[in-house]
Amino acid sequence: MSSDEFMQFQPTASRPHEAVGFPSWDDLHAPRLVFMHCPKTGGTTLHELLVQSFSTSQICPERFNGVKNLPTGQLLQYQFFSGHYDLISCQLIPGAKRIITFLREPVGRLLSLYNFLRAHRPDVVARNGWGLARLAMEFEVEAFFSQPIVRSHPYLNNGMSRALVGALPIEVWPNVDEALVLPDITGKSNLALERLKELFAFGLLEQYEPSVKLVFSALGLPQPKAIERKMALTDLVNQPGNYRPVESAQVTPELRAVVEDLVNMDRELYIGAQALLEQRLMSVKT
Predict the structure, then answer these.
(1) How far apart are CA 158 and CA 193, in angstroms?
(2) 24-42 b/e (C-beta count within 10 Å ≥ 16 → b)
(3) Which of 113, 137, 202, 277 is the most exposed place for a label (fewest CB within 10 A)?
(4) Could you give the C-alpha distances from 228 to 42, 48, 78, 208, 224, in angstroms and in order?
(5) pLDDT tens, residue by residue, 220-245
């Protein structure tokens, strides 16, 4: 178990015991902020705003959906968690939690995700083994969303609802898993909305600034002086890095028909979220 080979394949299990300090009652009861970041909902911008309230040692380094792999003793060290988590994974985080998330109009989210994946440089995709990005580079938008492995991807097939009602059984979302059997969540859009209501706060991309103000007010944090947009594709492709200029696909009636059953539950969730957010914004004004 102390061999280099074992440590490469089991880095968490092989971690020396002294690397994780002994917890205290204060550690257990410290409030934790957990941001469920659904891909392409403006989450990186929100992450950068929130992270300013924490020191580096307080921030969990897991940004994908691998919180389940971390031991409790390690989780207790952190006070800010931000990643592409599902809600059930968030519940594994010990202590009092304030869980927040952002949503986006479902068809727009899928299109943004496709354009984002397609804009990655081929060498970056190959180096990381990102199968979903490889498919986006290979197929035009309607053909991409017609691929069975894309249609069964948990982050694409009503992914916002799935994050609230069950597990998202892929850790790194640009990956694909050909053996994955997607759980059926038919009829659970009401449950998704109820779980959204139970979160500490949420926002919508389409009402970004008022949503950010609402979230920061609920958290008792100072309002941001400015909201600087992060990870916008128009900016990324014009900077040195992992991206390249591509022609962005647009929403068409044909695309809407192809993705209809990929967004039907997310649409119901989003409509309910719009009404709920409007109520909360009105209550703040009054």
Answers:
(1) 13
(2) eeebeebebbbbbbbbbbb
(3) 137
(4) 11, 9, 25, 12, 10
(5) 999 999 998 887 787 888 788 889 99
- Strand-by-strand arrangement of the 80-83 sheet: 80-83, 32-36, 97-103, 201-204
Report the alpha-carbon distance of residue 236 to residue 232 in Å, rounded: 6
Other residues' Cβ atoms within 10 Å of the Cβ of residue 170: 19
Give the start-end residues of each E strand in 106-259: 201-204
User: How open is the CA angle 64-202-51, to the nearest 5 degrees?
Assistant: 55
Among 163, 157, 128, CA closest to 145: 157
pTM reported for the whole predicted model: 0.90
Q: Report the first-to-last Cα separation within the chain, whole angstroms.
A: 62
Q: Is 179 exposed, middle or buried (0-12, 13-18, 19+ CB in 10 A)?
A: exposed
Q: What does each C-alpha distance from 106 to 67, 147, 179, 206, 264 come to in angstroms?
A: 26, 18, 26, 11, 9
Residue 102 has which token pair?
């952002």
CA distance 130 to 171: 12
Q: Which of 139, 170, 141 is nearest to 154 (CA)?
A: 170
The tokens describing 143, both together, are 């053909």
